[in-house]
Please model this.
Amino acid sequence: MYNQSTDERTFYRGVLALLALTGLTSVAATVLHYVEPNPELMDLIIPPLVAVSNLIMAIWLVRCPQHILRVVYSAFGVGIIALSLPAWYFTWHATHAANVLLTQVFPPISSFFIILIVLLMVLLPPRRAFTFMILVWSLNALPILGYLLTHKEELWTPRGREMFMSYGLAIFLLFILLPFQRRARLQLERLQHANFHMHNLAERDALTQQYNRWGGQRLLDEFMRSRTSGSIIMLDIDHFKPINDTHGHVIGDKVLQQFSERVSRALRSDGHLIRWGGEEFLVLICGITEQDAMKVAERLRTSISSEEFPVVGKLTVSGGVTSRRENDSLESLITRADKALYDAKLKGRNQVALD
Model:
């Protein structure tokens, strides 16, 4: 999860928390129904199935966070089924049993119905939310409202009025609010886009468009917290100072731009290039061994020396490679990479060394 944006991590944690809370609620409902004197069969089936389903979806989300949207839609599907089955079952049971009243046997789940509608409205795009809200309302409210309207003696009881309000009038208030939710969502998306743009400007180097020292530090901190394996490569352009002295800083800046472009093209999607300072760059690659990191470093070195740079001609680069070890801190990791880079320069430059 270390390479996700802040918004993605927040959404991920929110979905995981929602699954956990729903699962715990289902477990509590299961216990209550099993200890009550004469529980209905539906009450003994639905809550434990929902609890198990939420556990499976939580494990799915933890193991495959990239499938988060599938998990969300699956959770909505489970919620729709879990609320719809009791609505139809208890309505049918009250209709066909002379001594059974819907207002007495129907479980207190109307609040969960409203919560599900609100979650649909908040989490889904407006058009899709409207479609799902109509579906949920039709599957849950129609049988209950139809029953109450044909059994006026139950409609005018306190429980009957509460059910009629929850499944009838309250949903229309939510439909009225949906256009305002759409406007609020559009405004939120604009703010998120502006925030992303400002955040990107703050952590990107203006010259090379790669991560700057601040952005790279954040990336490395997240890598260290993730406890995953990986390697870093410290790169330094050989004899860069004479370029500025001879050709000026404008040419020197162009060399840095071209250098970062070549290195970036030679890296795969799992590699992150950071301008660590001046002509020194750092590459972070997760899930890679020291041997493979050395091969990557050699490929980067070759990509620089194989083709001349405009105006200044051929350039070379030295590199230091190291991999994450047990009990490593970020400081110790970077210190080893810097030491390996220093060894490469002592040995004559235009090479990579491992520490």
About this structure: DSSP finds 13 helices and five strands in the chain. The radius of gyration is 30 Å. The longest strand covers residues 230-237. The CA atoms of residues 121 and 178 lie 7 Å apart.
